[in-house]
# Entry
Amino acid sequence: MTESILLPRILLTNDDGFDAPGLAVLAEVAQDFAREVWIVAPTSDQSGAGSSVSLHEPLRCHTRSERQWSIDGTPGDCVAIALSHFMAATPPSLILSGVNAGANVGDEINMSGTIGAALTSLMLGVPAIAISQAFTSRDAIRWDTARAILPKTLSHLLARGWRKETVLTINIPDLPAAEVTGLGWARQSQKNIAALEADFRISPRRHEYFWLSVKRQPPIETDNSDSALLKRGKVAVTAMSSDRSLDLGKPDFSFLKHDNNAEKIDEFDITADELSDMEESLPDFHIPEAPETENSDSETTAPPSPALQAMHKRRAHGRRR
# Structure
């Protein structure tokens, strides 16, 4: 199926790290789509890095093989270094990022380094596709499914193309390849991240630190959302743009005139009254007074900051209203 689609060069990267099994699967698949396959990937796992790039520290490079390097940085760093240095004279026709261990759906796409690499590619003018393999158990990821389904999916997409201001993200369902029924174009599901939890810990050397973890919840879905398509046994393909702005259709407001028309408040707008209500719903708190003591060396309670005192006064005033 790939004989008619043979690109000059494809660049591969990921966020799971150079030695991740998903990158090996992607390299195997990419050989049938390009005369040259280049790899520039992070040395270590960079999951959650998003589109970040390293502007305040040097980035060490390690040659792994011909046309293959690992970078002590983020997926975005890898794309930037590949395009501006390693492949500057011979740029890639396409960048593939993945195959990620785990689906990238819903709100998780905002943190995904796999998708972040693709968005960095888009910003730098190179078409890109991010690829993820869903799993139920991290110990039993269906790499054989990705190996079988990805060639069909890439052939379909490359033959038909996509809008140049977007990147594509592919999510492959957690099923045997024979049970994957097809491909569907999907919208992003919503609200599948309940919280980012900070676990406070103390090291054996008595250093305080935090360990962050993602608390997930069932997403808000529509019939054509990414997570819904995966449940129906389809490959979910989502077109994503780096433009995150929304046209709200609201009129301009002038600071120089006094005849601005009153704006109609939309039902989805967050207003000052709602923000005040949120403040009123906060639990009561007490500003402790410094205890009187004759011993100037004894421990005392620090006086409240000006900001804390001001907040207390605002809340007290709001209750009197």
